[in-house]
Write a structure and sequence with these properties.
The chain contains two helices and 16 strands. By secondary structure, it is mainly β.
Length: 237
């Protein structure tokens, strides 16, 4: 009878001793090509081997395609730049190139070095864009270093280091809740080659990936017209 009387204490003890489970999503790898668009290689094994996860979730795939639109930040020739990065960690964690390397989570993230500052993606040519995704840590293994005060800027002719330069156009401003989970931000259709997050103040911003998507400007990718995509054409030779 003693077991019946105290069964609830045993259950509570078991729950308290259970390890914390992080939101690992284990997304499937997206297509390597979409129409005539080719994406960066996503070698998860290599990324995991390089990663210093510190007991937290390791790399997870970033979508190459969302809602039948290509992730323009993951185009083969797209590159990432930043005003600074946290010193002493790259390549184990927090490299600028991890802004668009195709993997989520802390050990494949970028952390800013000095504030204010910025992180940006050069898509390689002018495209129509109208939404992005980014977060601090997709798995929520870490809840610090969230960004709460930032602008989204775009440029077509020059990526001036000064975010106040007139070559930049502001398309979105956020001053509110800190961005922890991977979050979508939408704005009116605009042409852009460079897309920049300009970060003003916070406790040390971490961005594990920037995703960029285009508008609803259809184009046929098959001569028969049977397959119509829903993104704006990135100009190529």
């Amino acid at each position: 009878m003693r077991w019946t009387k105290y069964w609830w204490l045993v259950i509570v003890a078991m729950l308290v001793s259970m390890p914390v489970v992080f939101a690992v999503h284990d997304e499937a790898q997206g297509p390597e090509k979409f129409g005539r668009y080719e994406f960066k290689a996503q070698d998860k094994k290599a990324a995991t081997d390089e990663c210093d996860a510190g007991g937290k979730p390791g790399p997870e795939f970033v979508p190459t395609v969302r809602d039948k639109e290509p992730n323009l930040a993951l185009l083969k020739d797209a590159t990432a730049e930043a005003s600074s990065q946290l010193e002493g960690w790259c390549p184990r964690r927090h490299c600028t190139e991890y802004l668009n390397d195709g993997f989520y989570n802390n050990c494949r993230s970028w952390i800013i070095g000095a504030l204010p500052g910025w992180a940006q993606i050069d898509m390689g040519d002018v495209a129509n864009v109208n939404r992005i995704y980014f977060g601090s840590d997709h798995s929520q293994g870490f809840l610090d270093r969230t960004t709460a005060d930032f602008d989204i800027l775009v440029a077509t002719s020059k990526a001036d280091p000064d975010s106040d330069a007139n070559t930049w156009k502001k398309v979105y401003t956020h001053k509110g809740d800190p961005i922890s989970e991977t979050t979508e931000f939408t704005f009116k259709d605009v042409e852009a080659r460079w897309l920049r997050l300009h970060i003003r103040t916070n406790g040390g911003a971490r961005v594990d990936e920037i995703e960029i998507y285009g508008g609803k400007d259809p184009m046929d990718v098959e001569p028969q017209g049977k397959l119509t995509t829903t993104w704006a054409e990135v100009k190529t030779e």
